[in-house]
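seq:
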Amino acid sequence: MSKKAFLKAAAIKTADEKHRQTIAFNMGKYDAAVAKGKQNYLNLPAARRHAKNIKWQVMEHLPQYLQEFEHNFTQRGGKVIWAETAQQAANAILSILQQHGVKGVVKSKSMATEEIHLNEHLEQAGITVYETDLGEFIVQLSGEKPYHIVTPAMHKSRADVATLFNRLFNTPLSATAEEMTQTARRQLRPQYTRCEAGITGANFLLADIGGIAITENEGNARLTTALPRIHIAIAGIEKVLPSVKDLAHFWPLLATHGTGQQVTVYNTIFTGPRRTDEAEGPEAMYVVLLDNGRAAMLADPKLRQALYCIRCGACLNACPVYRQVGGHTYQSTYSGPIGSVIAPHIGNPKEQKDHEHLSHASSLCGRCTEVCPVNIPLHELLLYNRRKMAAAGATAFAERFAWAVWKKMMLNPRLLQTTENNLGNRLFSAIFGRIWGRQRSLPQLPPKSFRTVWQEQQQIKNSADNE
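struct:
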């Protein structure tokens, strides 16, 4: 998506009062829940520092931790697949499903599968995909992409979902949230036993035991992994934690910043396929470790901090830009501040270039950095991306020219003084009128500059002293 297309979509969305009301309502509930949840910590800043230190340790020794995970996971009968690109990951998963004769899969919420466009890839091959997370189910029925990292259907009101379910399932428009949830359950429940494979993401990879950890609130991930005979998990290589003991710190931290809970309802650890002494679980389990640009980020000492992210969504909820333009405007798997940081480095070169402009979709207020549970300096990384773009000559001529003129005026007091009175306002209107003034009143420059006011005050003071 080009910068021009982003600005056009953002202008439309910010003028959509219904969208703004829905997001304000949903964000308001989130804000209240998270503020209450944070009160459970005696020293939240210390908890955040500890989490960052653990993730720092992981990134400094990521190859060793990944090898440790692979060794321990394969020791228990699991299989690990390394995927350098999104295409390799999607092809590997498709190959597994075809080898096992799979015709339908149930799938729990996973941003990594969105990143590699897995649903489209499988459906083109004739494999039906059923999203089992309620929010994902809703956006799948709507033919949309997830709106938010944690809450895929945040942009939908109860009335929107009721209208959708009425059209597809003939439920009454007056249906309550509970009644619509029951409708979704009736649609999805049979698929857990019919489908031969279940696909999940992974919140964390546990190196010391060779396990994956999944946290959720609906129980659909447990059904997705327990009933089908094949379980495939896909995770970015940055999701590693050194030890299963670290979950005692990260699970509550993720829940608090993601939904305001002390801990989410269902927390599960998987260490491989069903063993001979076990009655439940899949016959085969695969973990796909996805690179897709992450290794290049890891090689950059500054940018690798973005790989600390635990996908809680806190920065999205805090971002004034995200709250106005919404998740779909970004046209990226990862939106909001964290998406603006990593999207220019994730995927193939074309995808990276298409998302370069997102680093400018920020007010640089620093609120994202303030709320991040692992202390990622997001606003600094946004500036870092911008500097890299400027150094590579990616900025437009008009922008370079504008800054050159600004610099010239700032360094020349006489030129700066010419912007006083009506001339300054005319210049301001000519430069910013089309960008800022379409739906808002342009601010008026003061009739006198600070320099002029200072000189006048000094003259009055000197006159008074002479008297």
